[in-house]
Specification:
Blueprint: H1 34-44, H2 59-71, H3 75-90, H4 99-104, H5 119-123, H6 134-146, E1 158-162, E2 195-198
Antiparallel strand pairs: 1-2
Helix pairs in contact: 2-3, 2-6, 3-6
InterPro entries: SleB_dom1 (IPR042047)
């Protein structure tokens, strides 16, 4: 299993807990790829991804963090969802070319549907918010947004996912009927939690 989140995945929740007294902030100074970050974290002996300094979180990264946090609280799942969102941005799916526009695209992400009672909660999250697991979501969003494309866990054409678990009592999405999900190149994700699809128009 590869990827920065494969590193002690079961411990990747909450704030960072480095095993050394050394400041991990240098990890962010020259972010070339997730592989580089992972290597630096291993050197530090860190058990979790270090939080990104609030001043390093721009609006686009914040929107990416909000949407992945709204979909799941599991780090490996957040990473995969983040790549789906990045794929949509980079391919200008449905004419949307920014993370904000992709997230707020009508009826694409359930938490941001106008009548969803949780919508305002997620939209109010900031880089300084202290909700459980939120700082980890910010770190994951930051890494995925700036990661080299070689770390993409599936093709750039993978722009859809759905969670059977969250659709209790509802039918399979029309766009998923008769289509086989893709298997991410890293992480074994429970198909009842998330399935990812490519080449859906």
């Amino acid at each position: 299993m590869t990827g920065v989140l494969a590193f002690h995945t079961n411990l990747l929740m909450g704030d960072t807990a480095p095993l050394t007294d050394e400041d991990p902030s240098f990890v962010y100074s020259e972010l070339d790829s997730l592989q580089t970050v992972r290597a630096q974290l291993v050197q530090l002996g860190a058990r979790r991804l270090p939080p990104v300094p609030p001043e390093a979180i721009d609006s686009e990264t914040l929107w990416l963090a909000r949407v992945i946090y709204s979909e799941t609280k599991r780090p490996e799942e957040m990473e995969l969802v983040a790549w789906v969102v990045r794929n949509r941005v980079e391919t200008r799916f449905r004419g949307k070319a920014t993370y904000r526009d992709v997230v707020l695209d009508p009826f694409q992400f359930s938490a941001f549907i106008p009548y969803n009672p949780r919508r305002q909660y997620y939209m109010r999250l900031t880089p300084h918010s202290r909700a459980p697991g939120w700082q980890q979501a910010l770190s994951i969003a930051y890494y995925v947004r700036f990661a080299d494309t070689t770390h993409r866990p599936f093709s750039i054409r993978t722009r859809h996912f759905y969670s059977e678990q969250s659709m209790t009592g509802r039918l399979l999405p029309v766009w998923a009927e008769g289509v086989h999900p893709v298997q991410p190149m890293r992480y074994r994700v429970d198909a009842q939690r998330f399935r990812f699809y490519e080449d859906i128009s």
